[in-house]
Amino acid sequence: MKGAGPVSRPLDLLLWAGLLALVAALGLNQISSFDYWWMLRTGQLIAETGAVPRVDPYTYSALGARWIDIHWLHQLGLWGLYRMGGHTAVGIWQFVAMLLVVALVAPLGRCPGRSWLSVAALALMLLNAAFRFSPRPESSSFVLLAGVLALLDRFERTGDARVYGIVVLQLIWVNTHGLFALGIALCGIHLAAELLRALGGAPQGLRTARVRRLGAVTLLALLAALANPNGLDAALYPLQQLGMIGPVDTRAAFGIAELLPAIGKLTPIKLAVFLTTAGFSAAALALNWRRVPLADLLVWVAFLYLALGAIRNVALFAIVVTPILVRNANAWLDTRPGFAAWSRTASLVVLALVLVPTWDAARGEFYPRDGLLKRPGFGATPWFTPDRAVDWIEENAPPGRIAHTMKTGGYLTWRLYPDYPVLVDGRLEVFGVERFRQLLIRDGKDFARLDAEFGFGTALVRFAPKKNAGPLITWLHANRDWRLVYLDDFDAVFVRADAGHTELDLDAPGAFEALDGSGDWFDELRLRNRTFFLASIGRFDLALAAWNQLLALFPAAENGRSIHAWLESESRS
Fold it and tell me: How far, in Å, CA of 178 to CA of 68, rounded?
């Protein structure tokens, strides 16, 4: 591409330094993933046994069920990192994965005189994808996807044999995550574009050679899908995933937000960033429409369709369209030399816009603003898991089996397996859609039905960060067969009344732990959760006291006065 005008080297370096700071601010966060825990336990299991599990070893509801563990290589890597440096080492991997994606995508379509364009597009990519980076294998998929994009971009420019590196990436990918099918799909899209171009004109010999090479890569990538411990079962796993996801109403019933459609389900901030990315990339394609590479257009449409279908695919869309945006915008700007005079101004504007979310994320406000319990730092996020409640279970050994939700199952596997098998976790591939639906506990009716099947001895109820456990809390507290024995601002433990454990006295001093005194959003969250639980069991006097404490610390709390009035009314009656 052509040079793009006089931008000073120090300003250019500031742009890239600002982007690096954004990566660090968004990526250096404590671990906050429900699935991380059972994956870490499985990595340990694989390391100790030398074999990838073929059947479920963790549950009492699906023990021995077929398990196509396609993530085994990622899990083994997690365990290796944990052995080296604990949760801190795993947390650093979150940052490294984000950094690798940026490093692989940044050169694609870049024009040396327009770093501002690349930095702006990469910043949008990060803001779209950052909430998906975690110790889950999805982060590994993002890195491998970026690697495939880089090799395909080089092939578009040179047609050389390095494109066969995609086969190596696919061999890793098929043993890491079910999104390996995207690598094959991208090869197939580029092959289709090459075939259409070969049919459209000369030089025919050159086009034929490119088609043959890319066709060979696509075929080998397909064959690589069979190189895994589960053979054809794992190769067909992406199709199984599509069947498990099902229609929108089924996904909503699971309570798994990442499976819901993007439009209407994304938070306002995420929706704005997603629409901005889609709009700018569409504009770049439209402005450069006479010279748009056919593969760019096909990839853009395919991944937009995926993103609209499920929230989790927004990150994939952002990664894939970033080079499309940069490549086509730069091609159009090359035909508009008058824009070169604005390069310095554009650089300063982009730098300022990048520093805003960087500062927000560095202060720990970026993710909470979007309702996510991600905190800057290393290790595992306190209270994201039921760690205190599990401490109580380990110390007091209440009767099994434990009733709990899907989101706590992974952590229970990490901490309590094999002493306490779990009811359910996030492995939808183990349970299947119908069984997964049957194992949901939303209220007392669900609890009683599953209690009749399994005979619960203990119930662990996590009522944060979502407030959907109210009906179950109310039912358990009112049921004389169950007794509240442990409570913090996130979790409650009930045991059978005949188990011999003393009921918790909520009126006793120190029934709740003191706040950490930081006065940040985390203290507000704890007080909201405390109020919610106390109101759910009818202790409106204590709930009102907790809410008054919240209003004293956070006078501008959302719905503060209206909730206060309601609690006052209920406590009087």
Answer: 11
